[in-house]
Specification:
- This protein folds into 3 domains: 13-107 and 182-480, TIM Barrel, CATH 3.20.20.80; 112-167, Oligo-1,6-glucosidase, Domain 2 (Oligo-1,6-glucosidase, domain 2, Alpha-Beta Complex), CATH 3.90.400; 502-581, Golgi alpha-mannosidase II (Immunoglobulin-like, Sandwich).
- It has 17 helices and 20 strands.
- It has helices at residues 19-22, 33-38, 40-46, 81-93, 112-117, 182-198, 243-253, 272-279, 315-327, 348-352, 360-372, 403-415, 420-433, 436-439, 470-475, 480-493, 495-498, and strands at residues 13-17, 50-53, 57-58, 70-74, 97-102, 131-132, 135-137, 140-142, 156-159, 164-167, 203-206, 262-267, 288-291, 337-338, 377-381, 502-506, 514-520, 527-533, 552-557, 571-576.
- The model is unreliable at 1-5 (pLDDT under 50).
- Bound molecules: 1-O-alpha-D-glucopyranosyl-D-fructose (TEU) and calcium ion.
Length: 584
Amino acid sequence: MTAPTPNWWKSSTCYQIWPASYKDSNGDGIGDIPGIISTLPYLKDLGIETIWLSPMYASPQKDMGYDISDYEDIYPPYGTLADMDELIEKCHGMGMKLILDLVVNHTSDQHKWFVESRKDKTNKYADWYIWRDPKIVDGKQQPPNNWRATFGGSAWEYVEERDQYYLHLFVAEQPDLNWELEETRQAIYKSAIDFWLKKGIDGFRVDTANLYSKDTLYPDAAITAPGEVTQPAFKHYLNGPRMHEWLREIREQVLDNYGDVLMVGELPYTERDEVLRYVSAEAREYSCVFDFDVVMLGNDHVGGGKKHQTFTHTLPQFKAAIAKCQDMLVGTDAWVTVFLENHDQGRSLSRFATDKDEFRDQAAKMLAVLLCCLTGTLFIYQGQEIGMYNHPEHWGIEEIRDIDSLNAYNDVKERHDGDELWLKKAMKGIQAVGRDNARLPVHWDASPNAGFTTGSPWIRVHDEFEKTNVADQQKDPNSVLHFWKKMIALRKEHADLLVFGTQFEVWDRHDQHVFTFTKSHPTTGDKLLVFLSFSDDIEPLHYPTWVKDAEKELLISTVAEVGKYLAPWEARAYLLKGGAVNGA
Ligand code: TEU
Ligand code: CA
C-alpha cells in the first residue's frame, strides 16, 4: 500500500456532458441521450471513468434545464426515461459511472409543487417555497427586501393570487424551495435524489450546493452598490446556519442506503475553513467541491451574475488560486477537484492560455499537463479534450442564448442608454467569459455543423470547427486529443504521485511567464517536477536549487525533444526518485 485508500471517485477521471450541445441523433438540432450513448466507446477509449450529465430533466428551459419541472421525467427533445435507463446500463456495462446534476435550491415555476403553492396561502404546498408579504414604503408596495437575484433584478416576484412575493435567487422562473419545512425536504430527497439512486446512478454534481439555508429574517442587505435599488445579498444566503445539518440528513437518510455515493458540490465564494467543513471526510457531507477561485479570477466576487468586463488576471494570481485549492489537503482529511472548465465558463484555452492559431495546440497540451498533474478528482468538460476555444469576437448578441449573458448585456444597454461603445465592451466580456462559449456544439468532424447534427443546430456552431475536431484529431498521432489520452493514462499509471501527491509547492510565484511546481509521493519520497510555459517566447527554466543535481526521469513533454529552454507554451514533467533528491 503506497497511497491512501482511494474511494472510487478520488482517482476517477470525469467528463461533463452538456446534453443540448453534445451529439444530436435525430436531426432536430438538439443533442440527446441516444447521441450520448453512441459516443460511449469514444469516451471509454479516452480513459473516462465517470460521466457527469448536466440537467436532462423535464424543464421549460429558462436556464438550460436548471429550472426543473419534474425531477422524475426527461426533457422530451433529450429522450425518455427508457433512454436514461439504457444510458445507465451501458455506462455500467462498460465499467463507467454516471452522475447527474442535482438542482434542489429551486425548481421551475412550472413544477407542480409551485403551480399549487402559488394558488393561495392554505393549500398543501403553500409553504414549500419562500413567500413573504410586500413591504409598504410611503404607501407604496415593495418587495420584502432589497436582495438582488444572481442574474440581475430583484430576487422577489409578486403573485397576485396570494398578494405576496416569492424568493428566487436566480431568474423569476426558478423559485427557491423552502428547505426549512421537513415535509419539503423529504419530498426533495424522494423525488430528486432517491428516484435516481434507485435507478443505479453513482452520485450527483450538486448545484448551488451552499445556498439552501437562508437567513430566515430576510433582512435588507447592506448597501454595497450605492444608488441602486437592489443589493448583492450573498452574506444572507451563502453557507447558511442549517446547511451542514441538512447535508448530513441527506447522507444518513438517503445516500447511505446506496454505498459510496459521489456528491460533488458546486461551492461559490467560500473561504477555506468553511469549505473544509463541507469536504472533511469525517463530516460526510460533500465528497469534494468545485471551488470558484480559479474560474472567478479577475471578478470582484460581490456576487450577482458575471461582471463581464472585469475578468483579467495575471499568471501569479492563477498560480495562487490553484495553490489555494491544492493546499486544502494539507493537514486535513479533505479532498478536492481539479477543473478549468464547465458549462458556466469561457473555454480554458482562451481564458487561461492562448487560442492563437500558431500556439493553440501547444497550449492545449500544456493545460492538459497542468490538470493531469494536480491532486484531486479530475473533471474535463466536453470539447476540452480537442482544445475547443471561445467563439470569435465578431459574433453579435443575436447569437447568444444564455440568460446570464443576455441579462448582463441588457443591463449595460439600459444603464448607458444603448451607447454603442458600452455595448461593444459588453459583447467583449461575453466573448471572453460568457457561458455560451462552453455551450456551442461539440466538433465531431469537418462535415457541415461539425457533425453535431444533420439538421439546424439550436445554437450557432463555432466558425472554425474544421481546425479542431474529433475525427481529424483521431487520425493525427500528434493531436491534442491523442495527447489528452496519453496524459490520462499517465495519470492513472502514476496515480500515487499525480492523483494523490501531497506538498504542492510553487517555485516561481511571481514569474509572469512560467509556472513551476513540485509535489511529493505520499510515502516514497519521489517527487514530481512540472514546468509550464505561458509565454509566446522561449523561456529559461527555474529549477528549485535542491533539484539541480537530482536524477530526473522525463515523464512527459509536449515537444518532440526537450531542450535547455522551454519552447513557447511547452510543458514537461519530471519524476525525481526519492533517493536522488537531496535537501528536500
Ligand atoms: O450556478 C450557480 C452560480 O453560482 C452561478 O451564479 C454562476 O456563478 C454563474 O452561472 C456564472 O455566470 C449554477 C449552475 O451551474 C448554473 O448553470 C445555473 O444557472 C445556476 O446554478 C442556477 O441553477
Ligand atoms: Ca436530437
